[in-house]
């Protein structure tokens, strides 16, 4: 009989420790070690041992160049969702969707699975957090009560798998993976062992039965999907549903996708009847923009293959206390420190004794370096109290030497700006567009001289 000793497993990274400690040595997280039985084994491991002792299965090899047709994707009819997953759901794929509580994950997936059911697909929605009547009420509120979606409120993995094998659906929603548990493990639901084992069995079911399985995952306070990171390696696609509660829009972003691009986003707007897709995100992010004011610059960015325009706001004010503040919303704090250092060292602008506040309007999070020039233009505009042209856009990357470097897809950025009625652009040197008045800069010093009112 196997000994049942206790080990301590980190709930953040999954590392195993022989004794409890306040801090995990592997990932550095505090108070994440939980006691679990060391005799736990993956599901179906005993059956696997019996098979290996009786006979050996032969490894099947296929030719890499053999022609195979791509399976028809399951298109939900929600263009923003289908764009992010690569053109529709691939049969036999496993997708992990994470997001903050109440952001709209369940609403989006219920709308998607109902659309598939309308199209004739066999759909199953398994909820481990809500009763079936609660899901029905949400569907009724969204106007989807007539969709042929089979509902189940269950948390036992064995019961769920037995039901799915009998039903043989085309798509399955598991909401959420942290609520499932297996009776073959002594750990509590939501622990690393349970999440890893349940995810493994569901991914195996998806591959063997050619069923698209979507797993909903909780997120930690740092914004990462809770549980072991090995789950993200198991699945084919990892999606994050982002958004601020104070704003009406939501963003579906792909961070891993074996069947499509990983830099696409889908934009949705929260309405009374659920999530509504936004065909023109630039118009939404720029909605309510008033007259030209100092410290405001319109950034022409790229999200995947889609150009997105948004407003970057900066405020430079005298420090009320001895230590100046640096507050950033929607951009990288370290990137702001770099741009401020370049403006101080290369252009002679003093920000050391002044508060600096930076905000990306609408709650959008920007990560591409092409926003450097727009941030610098907003900071310089606020510093001189000189507004930028209301009909202009800005983009470009700034080097530590003060040079302004070109960025990719400049033509797409300028075409999007022209389509929305903008007339001018501040860009790296070399960018051209017949529809806009383009002013190119090779250095950030040239940008400061262009915006300095004393030089005009």
From TrEMBL:
GO terms for cellular component: cytosol. The keyword Cell wall biogenesis/degradation does not apply. ATP binds at residues 99-106. Pfam families: AAA_25, Zn_ribbon_LapB. GO terms for molecular function: ATP binding; ATP-dependent DNA damage sensor activity; damaged DNA binding; hydrolase activity; zinc ion binding. Residues 355-456 are annotated as: Lon-protease-like. GO terms for biological process: recombinational repair. It comes from the Bacteria. Gene3D superfamilies: 3.30.230.10, P-loop containing nucleotide triphosphate hydrolases. Residues 70-219 form the RecA family profile domain. The keyword Transmembrane helix does not apply. Keywords: ATP-binding, DNA damage, DNA repair, DNA-binding, Hydrolase, Metal-binding, Nucleotide-binding, Stress response, Zinc, Zinc-finger. A motif (RadA KNRFG motif) lies at residues 256-260. InterPro entries: AAA+_ATPase (IPR003593), DNA_repair_RadA (IPR004504), P-loop_NTPase (IPR027417), RecA_ATP-bd (IPR020588), Ribosomal_Su5_D2-typ_SF (IPR020568), Ribsml_uS5_D2-typ_fold_subgr (IPR014721), Rubredoxin_2 (IPR041166). The middle region has homology to RecA with ATPase motifs including the RadA KNRFG motif, while the C-terminus is homologous to Lon protease. PANTHER family: DNA REPAIR PROTEIN RADA, DNA REPAIR PROTEIN RADA-LIKE PROTEIN. DNA-dependent ATPase involved in processing of recombination intermediates, plays a role in repairing DNA breaks. Stimulates the branch migration of RecA-mediated strand transfer reactions, allowing the 3' invading strand to extend heteroduplex DNA faster. Binds ssDNA in the presence of ADP but not other nucleotides, has ATPase activity that is stimulated by ssDNA and various branched DNA structures, but inhibited by SSB. Does not have RecA's homology-searching function. Belongs to the RecA family. RadA subfamily. This is DNA repair protein RadA. The gene is radA.
């Amino acid at each position: 009989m196997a000994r049942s000793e206790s080990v301590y497993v980190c709930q953040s990274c999954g590392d195993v420790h022989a004794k409890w400690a306040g801090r995990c040595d592997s990932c550095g997280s505090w108070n994440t070690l939980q006691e679990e039985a060391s005799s736990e084994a993956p599901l179906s491991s005993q059956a696997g041992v019996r098979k290996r002792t009786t006979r050996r299965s032969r490894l099947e090899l296929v030719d890499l160049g053999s022609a195979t047709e791509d399976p028809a994707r399951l298109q939900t009819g929600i263009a923003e969702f289908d764009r992010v997953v690569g053109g529709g759901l691939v049969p036999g794929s496993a997708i992990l969707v994470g997001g903050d509580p109440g952001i709209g994950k369940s609403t989006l997936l219920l709308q998607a699975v109902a659309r598939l059911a309308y199209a004739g697909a066999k759909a199953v929605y398994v909820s481990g957090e809500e009763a079936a009547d609660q899901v029905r009420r949400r569907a009724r509120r969204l106007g989807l009560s007539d969709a042929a979606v089979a509902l189940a409120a269950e948390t036992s993995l064995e019961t769920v798998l037995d039901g799915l094998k009998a039903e043989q659906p085309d798509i399955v929603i598991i909401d959420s993976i942290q609520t499932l548990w297996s009776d073959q493990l002594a750990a509590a639901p939501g622990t690393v062992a349970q999440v890893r084992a349940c995810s493994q069995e569901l991914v195996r079911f998806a591959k063997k039965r050619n069923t698209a399985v979507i797993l909903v995952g909780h997120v930690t306070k740092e914004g990462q999907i809770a549980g072991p990171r090995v789950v993200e390696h198991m699945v084919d696609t990892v999606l994050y549903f982002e958004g601020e509660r104070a704003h009406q829009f939501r963003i579906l972003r792909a961070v891993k996708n074996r069947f499509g691009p990983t830099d696409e986003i889908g934009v949705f707007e929260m309405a009374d009847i659920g999530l509504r897709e936004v065909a023109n995100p630039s118009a939404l992010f720029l909605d309510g923009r008033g007259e030209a004011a100092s410290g405001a610059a319109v950034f022409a960015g790229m999200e995947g293959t889609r150009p997105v325009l948004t407003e970057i706001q900066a405020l430079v004010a005298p420090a009320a206390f001895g230590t100046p503040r640096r507050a950033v919303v929607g951009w990288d704090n370290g990137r702001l420190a770099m741009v401020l250092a370049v403006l101080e060292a290369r252009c002679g602008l003093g920000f050391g004794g002044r508060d600096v506040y930076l905000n990306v309007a609408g709650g959008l999070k920007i990560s591409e370096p092409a926003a450097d020039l727009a941030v610098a233009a907003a900071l310089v505009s606020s510093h001189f109290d000189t507004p930028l042209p209301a009909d202009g856009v800005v983009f470009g990357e700034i080097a530590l030497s003060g040079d302004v470097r070109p960025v990719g897809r400049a033509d797409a950025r300028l075409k999007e700006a022209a389509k929305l009625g903008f007339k001018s652009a501040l860009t790296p040197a070399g960018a051209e567009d017949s529809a806009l008045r383009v002013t190119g800069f090779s250095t950030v010093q040239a940008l400061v001289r262009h915006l300095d009112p004393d030089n005009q």
